[in-house]
Amino acid sequence: MIHPANGDPRTAGPTELELEDLALGAPGDGEVLVEPLYGSWERNMPHALARKPVDVCRARGEDTVVLGNSGVGRVLRGGPNTTLREGTLCLFALPHRFDSFGYPTHLMGFDLPGTRGILARRGIWKQTDLVPLPEATRHSLPQWAAFGVRYLTAWSSWRVAYGAWRLQMTEQDQEVPYVWAWGGGTSLATVQLARMFHARTAIISAMPARLQLAAALGITPIDRRPFMELARDEDRLAREPGYAVRCAAAEDAFLDVVRSHTDNLGASIFIDYIGTPLIHATVRALARQGVIATAGWLEGKEIKLVRAFECIKRHTHVHTHGYRRSEVVPAMQFGEDHGWMPVLGDDARIYGFDDIPRLARDFADGKIASYFPIYQINPV
Fold first, then answer.
1. Any idea which architecture 31-140+344-376 has in CATH?
2. Exposed end of the chain (fewer CB within 10 Å): N or C?
């Protein structure tokens, strides 16, 4: 768990996970006692530890927050008026706050007050928060743990992005879209899905292991290391002429690569979870009538755009957050039936419960090459 910062939250530094005992009563009406089994280290967790963009404890008005919102658990027992049987394996897919149309506004184990995440040996959840895994699933529990947030988010984002692109570009106009992404777990999930829709896909990463995995999945790997100065620092651009020249050269070289893989058209759909430092390159890499899709803001919440340019190019910007309630079961069934699942690898490390603080540090230090860092909370 984490605690709020002391003093001025604007100047507070990052925090660390602490292990503490919390009281846990019996499950009430419509509630079940669950033991989390596996979880996936999600991007909202380092945001919470860094207290950026907000101190989630202060935002929730709580002294303690238990993190964790992507994983699988096993039902131990139910309270009154429950139907989930003891031993049922479930995905923590719906313990969030949704608007009246079923779209999420706040997430369990992050910014939703009154909720506890899955970084706990036991917990009580509403039975409606949980979605049973497909019976006799072909996929492993760690895979489902990683599926929980990233693949459901990718499913929702892709449906909107592809739909938006097809509104302007019919199959007669362009039968096959070019789908590109800056590399991360949700981006990989999206281009995997796009490939199943017969898109020509590419993902960009500076990590050799990730590039190798992309190639193994039939996704074109684009090595970012020759273009590291694509990430623009606006302050440096203003005061360092040499830096501006290097950024422009890196961007031009990158755009040459994009054009060479897209029949000189540019990316039809670009999946961008990075934000501010790469938006200039992302927009320039986009084809006419292209779509930029995002459901996150890893390195910046604010972007600058030339609206006239975007209008003339007929670019569409798709912003989504998480996934709609009604999308969960179809996405899970599609993943089960078509093998649209996280690829973890036989040698992927699974961190034990006591090693989760180490996982947090390794992730922050860039020591984890896997797209999907997994931890185990309880034995299976």
1. Alpha-Beta Complex (3.90)
2. C
